[in-house]
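Researcher: Here's a chain I'd like modeled. Treat it as a single chain, no partners, no ligands.
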Amino acid sequence: MVLTVLDICTIGLLAVVLALAPQIAVYIAYTLLVYASKSKPQVEYSKGKAHDISFIIPVRREPLEYVERAIRHLCELNIPNYEVIIVSDDEPSAKDAIVEVVEKARRIGCNAWFIWRSIPKGARTGALNTGLYASKNPYVYVMDVDTYPEKCFLDIATGILESNSEYACAVGKWEPLNYESRLSRALATGLKYMTTTLYKARSKLGLYTYPLGTGTLYRSDYLKDLLKGWDESRVQDDMEIGARIMHIGLRVAYVDECPIYVENPSTYRAFRVQQYRWAYGALDTAITRARHIFRSKYPFPVKLEAYLYLLQYIPQVLTFLGSILLALLQFKHPFDYLTVVYPLLLLYVVVMIIHSTILYREVRVNTSTTWQTLTLMGRLAAVTDAISLYTFTGSLRAIFRVKTEYKRTPKGIYQRVYTGLRIPWELVIGLLFLVAGTVTVLHRAILTAIFLLLHASAHLYVVVRFPRDVFYK
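Model: Modeled as a single isolated chain. Structure tokens:
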């Protein structure tokens, strides 16, 4: 098939629109969320007293020190009538070591229990259901081994669920726990900002709040009797059960007063695994739970926004697709395609500046210098751009209903355990953008060249800073 110049220009225009328009939409949406919620008061809940909570911790290939530390943290909260249920999907050879950790905790007075699933049916969600139906308390808190809830959150959440039967669960505010690596410091920055926009701002505006996979206190009877546990065929357990909670007309409370500390990935490889799973899981939920959301009794604007929330990775996917297409076109017909859509480009620059200013203010609070703030913002932008391929492939698998294996985000020592060489896609894509950008410069298509070279710098930054994570799996 021979493409005419008109065909190529049409494809070029489509590529530019794909590369710019989705990000414009995201920047505008986040900006509106922040400014619209500024004048709105945060809902404040009275504090109760945490009691009768079953903590369910699903584990598989987790560092033993993390398991031990998580149990000890829960034990030291001194919650009346609590229990900690460790549900292991580990290989038989690893079981005894975890049993020893649990028994050690019991010897010092922790009410910890161990369940080993010889057949790990349903992966994480299957483990959650095993723990749920083994639990005996009216409240259930699901947590990963790298999560540390504050007692004040559990006090407030228990008070909410005790006083109002409309609430199925209460979700807390994630706060970053670790800052030990370049990546974890950058991701801590992103976590704080996303908590402010996606949870705090949306909650203040009366929008629907989804549970968090680690950081939510549930009513056990609702989980068991109304929802029949978690859907073991879904990957993203929090979004999936959130859609079904919405369907039966129940509410989710968001508690902003007290933090739940979560560990960010310390390596690019761990971040890549996490984002692939989240992208797949979010879109998988959007496809399988659309009718649950739109048939709920919530107002239509709330239902629509709740559904769009599940599509949060689509703008990044479309931007990646448009950028790749724009780069490939330079080898066929080098041209400054961005000059064709000056109004769109101008809007992109304006909303990006506004969004970056909001992000800067959020980050600056926790940094000592302007340079440190800009460095963290740049690093966050680079790694977010670099994992676009994985959010793209994860979303594509969800669209075509290709079943994917649940892969836990590696933690601790497992973040640096490599199993062999892999195709360094970040290098491949970085070189594609670099060569395309160079070709574009030689043809004096400056705006398009700048756009492509910025993408090249993001991918090649990851290759230089995290080479082992790029070249090994």
